[in-house]
Amino acid sequence: MTTKSSVGKANILALGKAFPHQLVMQDLLVEGYFKDTNCDDPELKQKLSRLCKTTCVKTRYVVMSQEILEKYPELALEGLPTVRQRLEIANKAVTQMAIEASQACIKKWARPISDITHLVYVSSSEARLPGGDIYLAKGLGLSPNTNRVLLYFSGCSGGVAGLRVAKDIAENNPGSRVLLATAETTIVGYKPPNVNRPYDLVGVALFGDGAGAMLIGSDPTGPESPLFELHTAIQNFLPDTEKVIDGRLSEEGISFRLDRDLPEIIEDNVKGFCDKLMGYYGPNEMAYNDLFWAVHPGGPAILNKLEKKLDLLPDKLNASRKALADYGNASSNTIVYVLEYLIEEGLKRKKEGKDGGPDLGLILAFGPGVTFEGILTKNLTV
């Protein structure tokens, strides 16, 4: 009788990202958006101008371009059935971005692509059968024996949900290496401004496009340089909050509506969730400011509420705020950008002769449900 060899905790072994070619400067967004949609409503324009300032976003990448609007002018018109055109554009775009982010990640990982055993693909920006996981596997040249998991429409918590799934796979399959890829585009929800849908302008001011990738595996070997050790992952949903983040697919594309109470709902529940997650590490008394924080930046209000509720020092959410400023809320992708900035911060401090920062911390994201995703994590780069 043989005994099963123990498998260590899963590690993030590499990170990668990719973006479409269109870079949008927040300062120029309002005029461009109203020109492209042939709208001249001064009140809506003023409202969007205010939102662009309060979101703290400075730049974003988007798939939408003048070429696309010239080919599909109906996307800028109200009430037309355009879901077919939107998905035609989105399916191609997210696949290309996911391929590029994965290739960047695999290059940093420095092992052959044939060593990838599992693929987890996350997106809330496409809908097709077979799913984007097949097209990504084909585009990368993955083995047909690669085991795939597809997570659709998990929204902003999708990246951390995918990381939780990848962690479980890695720790239950000795020797496995899991590629996690996320890809999102706002083109599926692009609409002209409308006085009856003022909440649409929040998305116009906040969301961006892009892709992210991670390589996850236990017991690093050879050229692998682990970045984070994933200790414990949990998920909770809040009963009777399913309408707080409301997304619907219709003939006109995907529409999202965020309840204005979302930041307060997160504020009211985040402490208990974090305490539960921290409790898995042991009975020692850990203060919130003794940890690093990799939080999906759903928006400045969410970050501000979390910072206030947990009495965090101002620099604790620097990586999240920088990712929001540089890329906007790119849905499931954004946690990759936050983790990259977190590593950069630590390396910069060490280069200056300072302490690299806390080695223990939390990866957090909030999505439809309302769903909380969290992973207790050790930063191996500090």
UniProtKB/TrEMBL annotation:
It comes from the Eukaryota. Residues 229-380 form the Chalcone/stilbene synthase C-terminal domain. The keyword Acyltransferase applies. GO terms for biological process: polyketide biosynthetic process. The keyword Transferase applies. One of its GO terms (molecular function) is protein homodimerization activity. The active site is at C156 (acyl-thioester intermediate). Keywords: Acyltransferase, Transferase. Pfam families: Chal_sti_synt_C (PF02797), Chal_sti_synt_N (PF00195). Residues 4-220 form the Chalcone/stilbene synthase N-terminal domain. Belongs to the thiolase-like superfamily. Chalcone/stilbene synthases family. This is Chalcone synthase.
